[in-house]
Amino acid sequence: MKILIIRYKKTRGVPEGGEQGSEKNLTVLRQIAGHDNVDTYFIHDEAHRRTPWEYLQGILYMPLGYYFGLTPKRVREIISLAQAYDVVFVDRSVFGIVAKRLKETSYRGRVVAFFHNVEVVYFSAKYANRLNPLRWLVVPCADRNDRWSCRYADRTIALSTRDDDELFRRYGRHADVLIPVAFVDRLNNSPLSALHSPLTSVPPKCMFLGAYFPANVEGIEWFTKNVLPHVDIRMQIVGKDMDKLKDADWMRPDIEVLSSVPDLDPLFEAADIMVLPIFKGSGMKVKTCESMMFGKNIIGTPEAWSGYELDYSKAGASCFTADEFIAALTDFCQHPRPRFNTYSRNVFVTQYSADRMVDKFRKVLEG
Questions:
Q1: Which site from 278, 318, 328, 335 is most exposed, i.e. has the minimal number of CB atoms within 10 Å?
Q2: Architecture of the 187-351 domain
Q3: Chain centre distance of CA 262
Q4: What is the mean pLDDT of each run of 10 residues along the chain (367 residues)?
Q5: Which of 207, 367, 221 is nearest to 296 (CA)?
Q6: CATH homologous superfamily for the domain 3-179
């Protein structure tokens, strides 16, 4: 079996959550078909500096359903390449136009569309300001591509029942299979001494992980204003471009902000608690899965836990209000516990490790 995977971006720095999910997909596909039988077509390469003409093209083609970076010429190139492959794996549903064009040209292989989230919901949150002209370009384009992915793909994959329900409500099709967020296990290859972890510190060191994105910024701002003044913790914010927060009028000088960190493993080891105050979104939060992989105590909102099946109280806590966050963090302060949460780690190993997803992917590709 030969597979062509259509991916969004060749990352040169720290990968964002979606790209981490794409790397997992690539790893599993290679495990099934063999490394040399899986090729990647990238829509973007971070090493390439876009020209003004490329930006203009992106804007001009978006109303026609070509998400930024795609053009009719590039889609024709993909269709030509696809003839040599048994499967075209469209890694993001926002490229649903690829599935559409493949079927219109009678491509004989199998087209698989992977929904990292419901893109129209994701971009509606990203461009929440209705005065932003990009909203009126991007959101309809995402909606159209989600619809095309549902209509034209032979098989569709969603992360969770929430996304599956949303897809059916909007487009009348359930996903063929649900495959949750997963990671290739890094802890076994890490020099961390996590299994010999001490108790959580007093005061505990809490880390928020996430890129500079509206839902992340809104969540950490809310936490800083409504929770942080009432608890005795050391707060650390880590994520791509998060240094932009340093100029925010609500930022406190005692919060450590680290941006675009090349190696997160030592930070995970040092953190006592992962704090994830996320209130909006679609799909599943990659940061939650990564935190479980490292056996962390996790205090997050229902949105941060969405799609994950576990006992939140054993992994940390599920909190929605400021009072609930304050109570959970105060309990950690008053009753230190192991920094390495074996329950979180075991849930990851048994349910969210990439190795557990191989059979599900194989069923989609071959069934």
A1: 335
A2: 3-Layer(aba) Sandwich (3.40)
A3: 18
A4: 92 66 93 96 79 83 93 95 97 96 94 95 86 90 97 96 96 96 79 63 95 92 97 95 94 93 89 96 91 96 96 97 98 94 95 93 88
A5: 207
A6: Glycogen Phosphorylase B; (3.40.50.2000)
Structure tokens at 150: 């549902």
Q: How many helices (H) and strands (E) would you count in the chain? A: 15, 12
CA atoms within 13 A on the CB side of 163: 33
In the numeric block, which tokens belong to residue 318? Answer: 């599920």
Q: For residue 193, what pLDDT is reported?
A: 47
- Crossing angle, helix 214-226 and helix 119-126, to 10 degrees? 60
What would the two tokens of residue 164 be? 């599956």
Is there a common fold for 3-179 and 187-351? yes
The pLDDT value recorded for residue 44 is: 83
Which residue in this structure is represented by tokens 């099946």? 309
In the chain, what are the domain boundaries?
3-179, 187-351
